[in-house]
Amino acid sequence: MQHYLSRRWRTWIHRRLPRADERTFSQRTIFILPTGAGWVFGVLLLIMLVTGINYQNSLIYLMTFLLGALFVGAMHQTHNNLSGLTLALVQAGEGFAGEDIPWRFRLTAGRHSAAAIRLFCSGEPHILHVPAGESREVTLAFPAGQRGYVRPERIRVETRFPFGLLKAWSWLRPASSALAFPAPMVTSDRPGQAEPGEQDQQAEAAPGQDHADLRPWREGDLSQRVQWKRFARTGDLMVADWQGESGSPNWLDFSAWPGVDAERRLSYLAALVLERAQRGVPWGLRLPGQVLEPDQGAAHRQRCLRALATWNRQPPRDPEPRALGSRRRREKNGSEETATGAAEVSP
C-alpha cells in the first residue's frame, strides 16, 4: 500500500510540475504544511481553547484568539513569501564522473520580497534573501555517479519565514542535462600516435616549414594562426596548421586497447586528452561512429571530452504522464465514442 500511494503521489506531482528550466511559483504549485513547532503550537491552542471553555475565562479566550490570528497571519505570510518567486536554470555545468557538477540558478522575486529562501537538491541548503523585483544567483552541486547525461529529479525551494511555524515549498524539475565526463584513468599502454604513412609524409614536409594545411576557423584557435591576408582578400576566415611546427598529430583511438572494457577505454582516453591539452600539441580522437579531426586548444579539449561523455548515451526522456481519476475516464469514454463513430461511418 505504501508503494502504491508513493507511486500515485509521484505521478500526481509530475503532472502538476512538468519538467521546465524556469518556473514561477503560484497557488497551484506551492504546498504548505505546519512544521513540528507548528503542530505543537496548534495543540497548545486547542488545549487553551478547551481550558477557556471549561473555566469560562475571558483572558484565556483572548489569548487563544490572538495566538490563533497570529498563526493564520503567519500562514499567509509564509505563502506570500514564495508566491511570485521565479526560479530559472542559468547553466548546467560539466564535470567528471564521481565529482560534483555545478548547477547555476537565478531567483527573481515578484511583488513581495522572498526572505530566508532555502534552495537545495542534495547536501546542505543555500539560504538567501531576494528583495522585491531583484534577482540573485546561486550555484548548487549535484553529484555525478557515472558518465553521460546528469539531471536531478527535483530542485527543492522552501521557506519557513517568518516564525518557523509553517513551511511552504515547491520544486523545479529541470529539463536540461549536465554532462559527466569519464573519470580519467592513467594507463601504461600508449595508443598509436599517427597512422602509418602519415608520419613519413609529414616528416618530409617539416624541414622547409613551408607546407600548411588550411582549415576553417574554430572557437579557441590562436589569432596568430589566422590567415588575415586571405581573410581581407576573400572574406574566408582560415587557420593554418604548419606541419613543421607541430609535427605529426596524435591520434587517440578507441580501438587501441583490444580486450579492455569500453568504459575503461573511455577513462583512458579522457586521461590522454587532458595530457595532450597540457602539452599543447594537436591531436585527434577516433570513436566508433565518430571522428574528431586533429586540433588543439581549450575548445578542442572540451569537444573531445563531450564526445567521450555522450558516446553511446541518449539524452534522458520522461515517459508520457498517464491520466488519472475522472480525466482518465473522460479520455477513455472519448476514445470509445470515436471508435463507435468510425464504425458507423464505415460501410
Give the % helix: 25-40%
Distance between the termini: 49 Å
Low-confidence stretches: 192-211, 242-248, 341-347
N-to-C SSE string, H for helix and E for strand: HEEHHEEEEEEEEEEHEHEHEHEEHH
Overall mean pLDDT score? 81
Tell me the structural class. Answer: alpha+beta
User: How many strand elements?
Assistant: 17
Please state roughly what percent of the residues sit in beta strands, choosing from under 5%, 5-15%, 15-25%, 25-35%, 35-45% or over 45%. Answer: 25-35%
Q: Give me the Rg, rounded.
A: 31 Å
**Which outline best applies?**
elongated
Main β-sheet description: 5 strands, antiparallel
Order of strands across the biggest sheet? 2-11-10-6-7
The helix tally amounts to 9
Provide an overview of this structure.
The structure is a single chain. The protein is built from 9 helices and 17 strands. It has 347 residues and is α+β, with helices and mostly antiparallel strands. The radius of gyration is 31 Å and the shape is elongated. The two termini are 49 Å apart. The model is unreliable at 192-211, 242-248 and 341-347 (pLDDT under 50).
Short description:
The chain has helices at 2-16, 36-55, 58-82, 198-205, 228-234, 243-246, 262-279, 298-310, 325-345, and strands spanning 22-24, 31-34, 86-92, 94-96, 100-108, 114-120, 126-130, 135-143, 148-150, 155-159, 166-172, 178-181, 212-216, 238-242, 250-253, 283-287, 290-295. By secondary structure, the protein is of the alpha+beta class. It is elongated, with a radius of gyration of 31 Å.
